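Dear support,

We are seeing what looks like truncated structure output for some complexes. This example has three components. We would appreciate it if you could run it in full and send us the complete token output so we can diff it against ours.
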Amino acid sequence: MEPLISIKNLKKRFGKEQVFENLNLEVFKEEILVIMGASGSGKSTLLNIIAELDSDYEGEIWRAKELSEGVTIPYPMVFQESESLLPWMNVMENIRLVAPQIKDDRLMSLLKEVEMADDHHKYPKELSGGMKQRVGIARALACRSKILLMDEPFASLDGMLRAKLQDLIRTIKVRDALTVVFVTHDQAEAERLGDRIIQLNTKMK
Amino acid sequence: MLKKPVVYRLFFISILIIIWELAAHFGPYPDALFPSLVAVVKRLGMLVMEEALLLKALNSISIVLIGMIISALIALTLSLLGIYLPFIKENTKLLNSVASPLPGIALLPIVILWLGLTSKAMMLIMVHAMLWPMVTTLTLALERVHFKYLRLIKVFKIPFWRRISTIYLPGIINDVFAGFEIAWSRGWRTLLSVEMIFGIVGSHSGLGWLIYERRMYMDTAGMLAGLIAIAVCGVLFESVLFKAKRWEVFIGTTDLH
Amino acid sequence: MSLVKRLLVMGLLMILLIAYSGCTSEKHVEKTKIIIADQFGLAYAPLEVMKSYGLLEKELKNANLEVEIVWQKFGNTSSIREAMLSGGLDVGFVGIPPFLIGLDNGMDWKIFSGLSESQVSLIAKDSSIDGLADLTSEHRIILPQPGSIQHILLQMAAESQLGNYAAFDDQLVPLSHPDGVIAFESGGLEQLHFTAPPYISKDLNVNGARTILEGKDSVGEDYTFIVGICQREFYDQKAFYEAFKSALRRSIEEIQLGSDEILTLLSEIYEIPKDELKADLREKTISFSEEVKGLDRFSEFMFKTGTLSKVFTVEELVWE
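Here is the complete output from our reference environment:
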């Protein structure tokens, strides 16, 4: 099968530190790829590079055309809770922020997908951690991209909630035919969620 | 015994009033130096009726408000540009450190030499007095908000102008109001001292000029009445602006960072 | 001690403090100095003569009086009023209107002598202005202070020419004469300066400057520009009072004689060429005399405009 993204010989430095030395990675269609590693192993950096946020690296990255065809935002991300939603906007407005042209019915159906339809008028301070992340997911989905990036989105949530949200991701992936790249440091989460797991250590292959 | 702070204040004020009246009536001071409070209050009434005290107060207040708005706009522009253009950021810092310690009143003679005794000169002094604390507050606030939501902005490619209306401005609104409070107090004090020393620089008669004029006509009671008016304005305004903080909670932007 | 008691004790202490400070005022102290206030301008020339020739010292010596003589220069009249009110001044020289305002507000002072009559002119740089009627709300008139003789002369002219004495009351810029010259020189066309010699000629040196109003035209008759005033306290100390009056008389006589020595002295002090000075004296641009003229005119006008609460009689205005 042809990969959607192919990374060859990725090298990156942060000042004196060599974060990646010849990293090779492929992302395949409709898989959940989990990138695992301890803090500081460069997983967020890798995700940023994949998301085209960071172009300061050496190596080759090949991306399939279909990723950027017809989409304004090809690599939407779901973040950790603290940098997630804007506190002065309600749920609907937060989603509209990234997709200003979105129609009401599509917005509501997205919220239904994440089970947040009843709370569409609420403000982040009225939402629990889990609810906020659901909104974050809906926000990313609103971009109609082929791929979804997630940077430790459930790190601050407790076990049961995590499991529910992990199941939600699986459901959405199937329903919307998405590819997911998921970063985490939690072994259990990686095993539960990932179709494939890539382990980042300090010395990269 | 009631322990409320209001009671303490009222008590203290009453004692002061009694001492003042005793000193004015029985003390060895001529009326022109130390008028009785009754005379002062009468004068206050007369100034409202005949000398358009309220209008002059409004004039003074409006000059400060206009200056505040201009300063806020300049401060916002400088902060915004500073985030994206290091040249602006560094030189704003430089200007701030050099200009900030200079009191408006010290600059006035030079400004008058350049711009004459016009309203432009007055506004320049006012803006200078109020701008620099706002610049400091807003640059810090804007940087904080910008970096907090930087990844959001980049990932979701939020365009420049929409960033301003949806992220930057709501994010710094607390600090804008805090900046307004500081700017107001600096501006008010600068305006009054300018009016008192240099008379009317500009086209409108204000409270500082009123006090100065009263002194020239030996109207000490009037001078004191003017001072009371100034104090009342200052207090009223500072608590009106304080109430602005309550608006923020209402809108829902406070205690959320 | 309860809170109430504490506050009452504090209050009592404050009252005692105030009473004490009142008792130590200078009224009860033997006279060790004479403090004399004057202002900027050629109108005060006799005082400069008095200073330079030690005329007051001579008179005091003749009367067997030993005191220190202190001269203080003020930029405007209200400071002189305030200084006199708080007991720090014996003799002052001011215009008639500020004197009247002080009197009206309860000051126990009167005129003991005239000092000078003078040209007092409103000078403009803006060539489009020929008179008061051409002034707009953008123009600014520099003069020593509201309530000064310049201000009243302006009000008189505004009343007779425009029917509104207060027409320019919101356009005043208070600066002392020397500061006013600097502002006038460097400022824009919107500035005018109402001033007296030697500052008139300094202003007229500026490009395009010319006189658009003369004080005498406002008043309609001769008037005394500056008078000498003192409070009852000083008047009652007859020996000092008479000594000062004699010294002043001598000084005025010396200037009227106009010797070369005097002219050189004044020329240096005021930084004007001797010839100009000579011409001024000859043409009566400025003249010195003990006579007091124009009191009624000012008194009536200022009563009419409400600046004064009553019209004063001569006895209320002049000592003796």
